[in-house]
Structures are given as C-alpha cells and as structure tokens.
Design brief:
17 helices, 17% strand, 3 domains, 411 residues, alpha/beta, 7 strands
Length: 411
C-alpha cells in the first residue's frame, strides 16, 4: 500500500474524532474550510492584481494598494457562508473565484435550473434547498435564475440549422397558459430533426391557439430562414393545413402521417384488456410490405374489430392518404420514419413536467420550462444503430437533393 500524501495526512488529522455534524453541519468544518479557501484565493488574486505581496516595499508609490475588506454572504450547497472580500484603493480589483455582485457559488444556479426543468415549482425548489442544504432562497432569486435562461432560449430558437434533414417530426403538446388576460389551452409545436449523421435535434418550439396552413407556413418559413434548404420526409400529427404549407416551402418533401399518433389515437378507443391484441393487428397494417397488402390488413382489421371499435377503421380510412407514403420506402427508411422511441420518450418527459403545473402565467414561462426539459432529455439521445443503412437508402433515392442542399448558398 502506498504511503499517504501530505494532503491525505493533513485531512486525516483534521477529521480525526469529528462527528458528521461537526464536519458538514450548519457551522461545520466544511463551511469553515470553504470560507478559508475562498478568502485565501481572493487574497492571492489581489496579490496578482497589484503585483506585490501584502506589506511588501514593492507596493510603495505604485498608485494602488489594499484598502481593507468588505463582507458578503455567498450561497452554496452547504448553506450560506460570510466571506471577507479584499478591496483596492482604485476599485479596479475584479475577483474571479466569486465575481463582483455574485452571491452564489458556481453550480448553485445549475441546481435550481435542474429542479425547475423537472417540473418543480418555485415553492418546491425553495423548500427543497432549505431542507437539503439549509439555504434560504427567495422566490425572487429563483425567478431571477430561471429568467436568465430566456436569453439562451432566444439564441437557441434563432440558431442556424443544417441545410437538409432526412427526417423532421413536427408534433404538438397542449398547455394551459395565460394569454391576453385569460387561461386557455394553447398548442406548443415541437420540431425534431434527424441529421444526415443520424443525430436527433430539437429544431424549435412554437406556440399557437390553433393549427392550420398559416401556422405551418410560419414554422416552415422560419426553418428555411434558419438555413434548412430541404426536408426529405416530414412526419406530422394531423394534416390540417400542412400539405398546402409544405408545398409552398418545400415542394419536394414527402408528408407522412406519424404512425405513433395513429396507434395512440386508435388505442384510446380500446379497453385495457384488448389493447395488446388491437395494437398487434394495427402493427400488421403499418408493417405490411406494400400499400396493397396494408389495405388488405386494414380490411381484415375492420372485419375483426368493427363490431366493437368501428371508429378505428374509419379513422385509418380517413387518413389513409397520409399513411400510404410509408410503403414507397424500403424497410430501413420505414423503420427510421415510424420508430417511436424518440417521440414517445419526448412526450412522456414533457408531459411529466407539464402536469405539475396547473397553468403557465405566460408564453415565455412555458417556453422557458419546456426548453430546460428538452435540454435534459436530448442529452440522452443517440443515433439509431440502423441509421447508416437507412442513410445509404436515402442517398440512393435522394442523393442529388442531398448534395444540392449542402452546395446551395443559404438564403
């Protein structure tokens, strides 16, 4: 076994005989050490700033010297600690470890944002910080920390995008928010793009009371202005107004009705005991080899289930024109289009966050929370293992469009 280092020996000596409360309690050793380390670091920063050590003769006649200390409380996971901040006579000293006007340790704001992104209310965050760390945080401070994200949201919403996305999912969640003095259900549209590398990326968030050609055109025009020259396949939930809008913005894009929404909406009519069987029969439709075979499977589905769930067959018939584009693609591309993991995971995560709130006070508050939740979810996204095979098929089918989009100057 190796000999302990000087630091390890010093720590062993420091901690010897100490109870847990004496180490991490409200006035414990951790807080005292934090205070001592920060103050020593600030004094070292002051020495570097002035260019000479305290009481050194080199400081005479330099035009600037130390000018006492000020006190301020700084908050962190261990609670709050009062530190002494050195000052210089000219007022030019800017400490790096705890910047001027900063009253929270690095990482503390991230703790607040992490809790907020998981749907915790301001009051919940306030209580949690007090219970876990003994830190008293005002609602105003929590709002200040979360509001600082809005600038990040605006930059994210306007960032440049790739020239082409093989697949784009456009989906909607309905959220209660205050608009023009009253609380109403408003749609929040989420755009998810799959890049040529197979990486999944949230393209943007848009809110509206309704959907239709005008809204779709607004969203698609924004994507084009941000650099998206072409979309190969657009998967959407419902087609109200979308074909006209996509024809104006991206005339060559194939519009595919999202299969996961068709299945989810269908199972909404089915009792729990029969959901598995109905889902299997629906799978036989959208996994068919050809459009003709899929229609035959639909006929068989109607013969089996129309007695109980006639609405399902009628719904699939009504939306058949939006479903059949799927069957023009090889299996690898179909799997990429109707793979539901990303959409399902996103829905579950966002709904879990939203359901903790009765309503949102504004559109900005809604976008702020959803952005933070999306940021957490998207960290776990990975390219599908079959993406390379799908990309080869996309290249065979649309190679000229893919090359043209990357070579065409942005508008």
């Amino acid at each position: 076994m190796s000999e302990p280092t000087k630091l390890e020996s010093a720590l062993d000596e420091l901690l010897a005989g100490k109870t847990t409360d004496e180490i991490v309690g409200p006035e414990g050793l951790l807080k005292q050490l934090t205070k001592a380390v920060i103050e020593r670091a600030m004094n070292a920063e002051m020495k570097h700033h002035l260019g000479y050590a305290k009481h050194s003769r080199e400081g005479r006649g330099t035009g600037n010297n130390r000018n006492g200390k000020s006190r301020k409380k700084v908050q962190g996971e261990f609670g709050s600690v009062e530190i002494e901040v050195p000052r210089d006579r000219n007022g030019t000293f800017e400490p790096k470890i705890i910047p001027k006007h900063e009253r929270r340790f690095s990482g503390f704001d991230e703790k607040i944002l992490s809790m907020y992104a998981r749907g915790m209310s301001t009051r919940d965050i306030q209580s949690h910080l007090e219970e876990m760390y003994g830190v008293e945080v005002s609602p105003a401070l929590i709002s200040q920390v979360t509001d600082a994200v809005l600038e990040e949201v605006r930059a994210w919403q306007n960032r440049p995008l790739d020239p082409i996305y093989p697949i784009v999912y456009l989906d909607a969640l309905f959220v209660k928010m205050r608009h023009e003095g009253r609380v109403e259900n408003r749609a929040v549209f989420v755009g998810i793009g799959v890049s040529q590398e197979g990486a999944k990326e949230v393209l943007g968030l848009w809110t509206s009371a309704t959907e239709g050609a005008k809204l779709w055109l607004q969203i698609l025009t924004e994507l084009r202005n941000r650099g998206v020259q072409d979309i190969l396949v657009a998967c959407v939930d419902g087609l109200k107004g979308f074909p006209e809008a996509i024809g104006a913005a991206y005339p060559n894009t194939t519009v595919q009705l999202c299969i996961v929404h068709m299945v989810r909406n269908s199972l909404g009519y089915v009792n729990w005991k029969e959901r598995k069987r109905v889902a299997q029969d629906l799978r036989a439709i959208y996994r068919a080899a050809t459009a003709e075979q899929a229609e035959q499977r639909l006929v068989e589905f109607e013969e089996r289930w129309d007695g109980k769930y006639a609405a399902i067959g009628k719904m699939w018939r009504r939306h058949w024109a939006g479903i059949v584009p799927l069957f023009a693609f090889p299996e690898e591309i179909r799997r990429a289009i109707y793979t539901t993991n990303v959409v399902e995971s996103l829905h579950m995560s966002l709904r879990k966050v939203i359901k903790t709130r009765g309503s949102f006070p504004s559109e900005e508050a809604t976008l702020k929370l959803l952005y933070l939740a999306l940021r957490n979810v998207s960290k776990k996204w990975k390219a599908a293992t079959t993406w390379r095979t799908a990309l080869n098929h996309f290249t065979l089918l649309y190679g000229d469009r893919m090359e043209a989009a990357w070579n065409r100057p942005a508008r």
